[in-house]
Write a structure and sequence with these properties.
Blueprint: H1 18-29, H2 50-66, H3 68-72, E1 82-88, E2 94-98, H4 124-137, E3 141-149, E4 155-164, E5 172-178, H5 181-191, H6 198-209, E6 215-221, H7 222-226, E7 240-246, H8 264-274, E8 275-276, E9 279-280, E10 283-285, H9 288-295, H10 298-304, E11 312-321, E12 329-339, H11 347-384, E13 393-400, E14 410-419, E15 423-434, H12 435-454, H13 459-473, E16 490-497, E17 502-508, E18 514-516, E19 522-524, E20 546-549, E21 554-559, H14 571-582, H15 591-602, E22 612-619, E23 627-632, H16 638-652, H17 657-677, E24 682-689, E25 692-699, H18 718-726, E26 729-734, E27 739-746
Antiparallel strand pairs: 1-2, 1-5, 3-4, 4-5, 6-7, 6-12, 8-9, 10-11, 11-12, 13-22, 14-15, 15-16, 16-17, 17-20, 18-19, 18-21, 21-22, 23-24, 24-25, 25-27, 26-27
Helix pairs in contact: 5-11, 6-11, 11-12, 12-13, 14-15, 16-17, 17-18
Length: 747
């Protein structure tokens, strides 16, 4: 016959609130006498000795209650976790409370007070946000490691779960489990290292160490912060920086807080203390007098010792194995746990501390490596950003990476650079992935695009070459980063001509640019859809080349998807929001400040899901009086005709003497070559840009002029040698109808 279930084990009624269910669980966990019977819940009574067991448990529990602070620091096998419950209304104020268990002694939770009064000040925003989220979504938040403040200023570590109140009631039930040391050790080791940020990892460690003391500090080698390799070095040369400090409170003047560099003497003392006999070891200094004698400097005492009261300290090194070939372990830093000397550190506690710090050291080293990679990729990313515009175009850019604990900086990039013939290239791309693999692909594509555009290829031809490059990068045998695939990367290239006031654009799977005209009207420059670079299983089609007018004062907006993507809206809505925001940029606004405002409105720093890149280009154009263009027939007298047209214009530009003669000679040679080796009519364009003059001669031929070494008696080929000697640079640009040979002269 089945035994009759006890009342305490009967299932709760459907109308029971979470608070009632938690309190019901407490009834079987604690006797009605409250904290006095805490031990009874952990030991089932025997059938023939129930009274003796209860009396023994009662005496044992009373002994623990009379000396709670000592029991908090005793060894535990994980069975001493005690459950409590607090009920909250929608204003997060306490309506009911059951914190009668012994470990909660000293935690006051009066009805009507705010639940946040139980929390350390630094935890209030995060916990409040989680409480509000459970109120709004009615989805429970389970098992958060949390600290509670006791009345005497000490703290209790608990596992906190937040449950929504059962309908029709409103509010929350917060269940709290006072965590024993071994359980806390396990929970801390699991929680630490979830971030790849050095500071956050160190702060998580400091918060966890409070279970063993009143104050915890983490000091890391300076090289950890910069991502450099930490190597073995003399103690007197070690530099430490305070990475974390807990709890969050007002500290005495002169005491080191996060971000402060430790004095060189303190760094050497700490490093030397934990490296005894060249072996990293934990040390304990039992009282304040011994600490002051060891430091031997009042200034160091103020910097390292928290407050004026008696203290003892345990110093535990953060140690990792050195790289291959390095003798012995490497010390990344030192942790210090301070507490009152009447509670000395026992061997078991030191073992627990060393276990936790050892696990954290590996996470710190991983964060250091990530920091190094992050810094390298970010440096490359910044290097690719446009430096400055010119007198025909003004550019401004913003690159905003995701949070530092992401997998690394992404592959978003923009670039702007001058091209021959007074033109300017504007390029934006988004390489697949994050980290060094994406950075390497990004750098290669960006530099290749610049080289090809400078060599005279048009945007569509450049994208065709980049498409081939991405396909090669996907070959892990020949690729730049084995195992990384850049397939699916996108790119958009625009070339601005300030003389014609036109833009030539080609797009490979990238989001369309936005053009804001001087009258405030906007246009999304959508080209024929084309797959991203390296896309497989698609019909290879030529990249469409699109041309559009850009009157002086126009604003061209290039960007990556991180600026406009929102899971709650379509990509078209995001582009629409961007269009509305950039329409508000006035012609007299500082363009760099305007770019920052656009990013701040569309992608606030705290809500980034992807890297954000924005390029604004304000096109001023070239004044008509500084340019001239002619279309001439291809005849023997065309060179003379070109010189006759150019001579008065050069006088108008106040160009005379040798400079004028050089320009006319270069123009004559270029026109002669176009007539002799090209076909069709000849176009001539001169552009004056301050102390620089650009000369461009086009024809319908496809042959490329080459500078070659001629023999002494050769009649041909001397024209290009003359051009080469008189100009600062010259080259060929391919056009829709043929080619154009250009040359630039300093005048």
């Amino acid at each position: 016959m089945d035994p009759k279930p006890s009342p305490s084990s009967s299932p709760p009624s459907p109308s029971s609130s979470p608070f009632d269910m938690v309190s019901g669980a407490l009834a079987s966990y604690l006797p009605r006498s409250g904290a006095a019977g805490a031990e009874h819940a952990r030991r089932p009574a025997s059938a023939d000795g129930e009274g003796d067991g209860r009396e023994s448990d009662r005496r044992e529990s009373e002994g623990r209650e009379s000396n709670r602070e000592e029991s908090d620091r005793e060894e535990s096998d994980g069975r001493e976790q005690i459950l409590g419950a607090v009920n909250l209304d929608r204003e997060l104020r306490i309506t009911r409370c059951n914190l009668d268990a012994a470990p909660f002694a000293g935690v006051s939770a009066p009805v009507g007070s705010a639940f946040t009064d139980l929390l350390p000040p630094g935890d209030v925003p995060t916990v409040t946000q989680r409480l509000r989220r459970v109120l709004d979504t009615r989805e429970a938040h389970v098992a958060r490691v949390q600290r509670l403040r006791r009345d005497d200023g000490t703290e209790l570590v608990v596992s906190m779960s937040i449950l929504p109140a059962a309908s029709p009631q409103e509010g929350l039930t917060v269940s709290l489990i006072a965590m024993a040391k071994r359980l806390h050790l396990y929970a801390s080791a699991t929680a630490i290292g979830t971030s790849l940020d050095v500071g956050e990892t160190a702060q998580s460690l400091a918060q966890s160490l409070l279970a063993w003391g009143d104050v915890a500090a983490v000091d890391l080698d300076y090289a950890v912060w910069t991502g450099e390799a930490v190597t073995e070095q003399a103690h007197e040369r070690i530099r430490l920086r305070r990475a974390a400090l807990a709890p969050d409170r007002a500290w005495p003047e002169g005491y080191l807080t996060p971000g402060d560099n430790l004095p060189r003497e303190a760094s050497g003392l700490l490093a030397g203390a934990v490296m005894r006999d060249d072996v990293p070891q934990a040390i304990v200094i039992p009282d304040r007098g011994t600490i002051e004698r060891a430091l031997d400097d009042p200034q160091l005492v103020r910097a390292l010792v928290p407050g004026e009261r008696p203290v003892s300290v345990a110093c535990i090194p953060l140690v990792v194995e050195g790289p291959h070939g390095t003798p012995g372990p490497i010390v990344l830093g030192v942790t210090e746990v301070w507490r009152r000397p009447e509670h000395p550190f026992r061997d078991g506690e030191l073992l627990d501390l060393q276990e936790l710090v050892a696990k954290t050291a590996r996470h710190v080293d991983l964060a250091r490596q990530h920091q190094r990679e992050h810094a390298q990729v970010l440096a490359l990313q910044r290097r690719l950003l446009p430096r400055a515009g010119s007198d025909t175009i003004e550019v401004a850019s913003v690159y905003q990476p995701t949070t530092p604990d992401s997998a690394g900086v992404g592959g978003d990039w923009v670039n702007s650079f001058p091209l021959p013939g007074d033109r300017t290239a504007l390029v934006v791309g988004d390489v697949v992935g994050h980290g060094l693999g994406a950075a390497a692909a990004m750098g290669q594509l960006s530099m290749e695009a610049r080289a090809l555009l400078s060599a005279g290829l048009g945007p569509g031809e450049v994208l065709a070459r980049l498409d081939e490059t991405v396909t090669l990068l996907d070959d892990t045998d020949a690729g730049l980063a084995a195992g990384y695939s850049a397939l699916g990367s996108t790119c958009c290239i625009a070339v601005y001509d300030p003389v014609d006031h036109r833009v030539v654009l080609s797009n490979a799977g990238h989001l369309p640019p936005v053009l804001v005209r001087p009258d405030g009207s906007t246009k999304t420059i959508a080209t024929q859809p084309h797959p991203a670079l390296g896309a497989e299983f698609v019909v290879r089609e030529p990249f469409e080349v699109h041309q559009f007018a850009a009157p002086p004062g126009s604003l061209l907006v290039l960007y990556t998807d991180g600026l406009v993507e929102d899971p709650a809206a379509s990509i078209d809505d995001g582009i629409g929001r961007l269009t509305d925001v950039v329409r508000e940029v006035h012609p007299w606004d500082d363009l760099q400040q305007a770019a920052r405002r656009v990013v701040a409105r569309l992608a606030p720093q705290g809500r980034l899901r992807d890297d954000v890149t924005l390029l604004l280009a304000r096109m001023a154009g070239r004044r008509g009086r500084d340019t001239a263009a002619w279309r001439l027939p291809a005849r023997e007298d065309t060179a003379a005709r070109a010189r006759a047209l150019a001579a008065p214009l050069l006088r108008q530009w106040q160009l005379g003497g040798p400079a004028r003669d050089s320009v006319l000679l270069v123009l004559s040679e270029l026109v002669t070559n176009a007539v002799r080796f090209g076909t069709g009519p000849v176009t001539v364009r001169l552009v004056s840009a301050g102390d620089r003059l650009s000369c461009e001669v086009g024809d319908t031929g496809s042959g490329r002029p080459r500078l070659r070494r001629g023999e002494l008696l050769d009649d041909g080929g001397r024209g290009l040698h003359v051009v080469h000697k008189l100009t600062t640079r010259w080259g060929v640009r391919w056009t829709d109808t043929g080619k154009a040979v250009w040359a630039e002269l300093e005048v």
